[in-house]
Write a structure and sequence with these properties.
This protein has 11 helices and 11 strands. The protein has about 325 residues and is of the alpha+beta class. It folds into 3 domains: about 1-55, Herpes Virus-1; about 60-215, no CATH class; about 225-310, no CATH class. A 4-stranded antiparallel β-sheet has the order 4-6-10-11. Strand 7, helix 5 and strand 8 form a beta-alpha-beta unit. The radius of gyration is 23 Å and the shape is globular. The structure holds zinc ion (ZN).
Length: about 325
């Protein structure tokens, strides 16, 4: 079962100092993070030790234990075979890296820890945000991403209640830490992606099946994108008369006129997106002089679609093959 997708929905805040709870917008959270907002109950700002934080929505369907396996969960990855049965994280290490890590025994222990890590799935919004964040923060720019829809085994045991985001922003949490024996799935409050939403830490065995689409979707170039491509194509360097106003040598890395025009167009689009994704989107949609304006506009339009027209993406997933994940 899919839940309605809305990147811009209101969030619940809870103050650790005074216990006040209230509803805010994403825009409010952005201002809060810049110390421009305070708790309406006690006046503390984000700098206080026990500052208010975003918390779960009491109406979230994922709070009901029996509902957890009936919901669709999402994950984004640059791997086209997620979740892999048994990855050897050490396979890609060079001999030099192995030496630097302290030799083969240390590498084997490290690889074991990597294998013991929990998998993460969350809302559609969290998965898409995760992709944008990875492109921005972790230099995954230029990589092909895949969106997975995950169905859980109907008989999974869900850990009662929920945890505070245990992954410390990098997704490094050992499965056994959050799912003790007899527990398949642990809910945790997501602070960073779809803030206030519930994500799950789980092992591969809790997953029944997946469906996968490559994102952004390679839709046909139409409407807005055609117009955008034409505008970028038409962007030209300043004319000779206006260029010869200074004797200073040309800057070596002056962006191309096409790149400057694309930048202006991106800025306008970014303004219309949810506040917490704006900066990541900015990086993800950077103009690349090696692609044509049409290619860039198509990619940009596909990235926007992931946020503003999720129905098209979910329909594409409906049509995707269902892959069983064997125990
Ligand atoms: Zn307070």
């Amino acid at each position: 079962m899919d839940r309605p997708v809305n990147f811009d929905h209101d969030r619940q805040m809870l103050c650790q100092c005074c216990g006040h709870g209230w509803t805010v917008t994403l825009h409010w959270i952005e201002r809060w993070d810049e110390s421009k907002e305070a708790c309406p109950g006690c006046g503390v700002t984000c700098e206080a030790e026990d500052a208010p934080r975003v918390t779960v929505d009491p109406d979230d369907a994922a709070l009901i234990d029996e509902a957890v396996p009936t919901l669709f969960w999402y994950h984004t990855s640059t791997h086209d075979d997620w979740p892999r049965r048994s990855i050897d994280p050490a396979a890609r290490l060079t001999a030099t890296t192995r030496l630097m890590m302290g030799g083969n025994e240390r590498v084997a222990a490290w690889a074991e820890r990597q294998r013991a890590k929990a998998l993460h799935v969350g809302t559609y919004e969290a998965a898409i945000h995760n992709m944008f964040r990875r492109i921005d923060d972790q230099a995954d720019e230029g990589q092909q991403f895949y969106l997975y829809r995950v169905r859980l085994r109907p008989d999974v045991t869900v850990r009662p209640d929920w945890l505070i985001d245990p992954s410390n922003f990098v997704g490094d949490v050992e499965l056994a830490e959050v799912c003790p024996p007899g527990v398949d799935v642990a809910r945790y409050l997501n602070y960073h992606e779809d803030p206030g939403g519930l994500s799950l830490a789980l092992g591969r065995a809790a997953i029944a099946s997946t469906q996968r689409v490559a994102i952004p979707l390679g839709s046909a170039l139409e409407g807005w994108a055609i117009d955008t491509a034409a505008q970028i194509q038409a962007a030209t360097a300043p004319t000779a008369t206006s260029a010869v106003v200074s004797d200073r040598p040309q800057k070596r890395y002056e962006p191309s006129p096409q790149s400057k025009r694309a930048d202006r167009l991106t800025k306008a689009i970014a303004e219309s997106l949810p506040a917490n994704i704006r900066r990541h989107f900015w990086t993800a949609s950077a103009y690349d002089d090696e692609s044509t304006p049409a290619e860039w506009a198509q990619r940009m339009s596909g990235l926007v679609q992931l946020i503003s027209s999720p129905a098209a993406v979910l329909e594409e997933l409906d049509r995707a093959e269902i892959t069983s994940v064997a125990k």
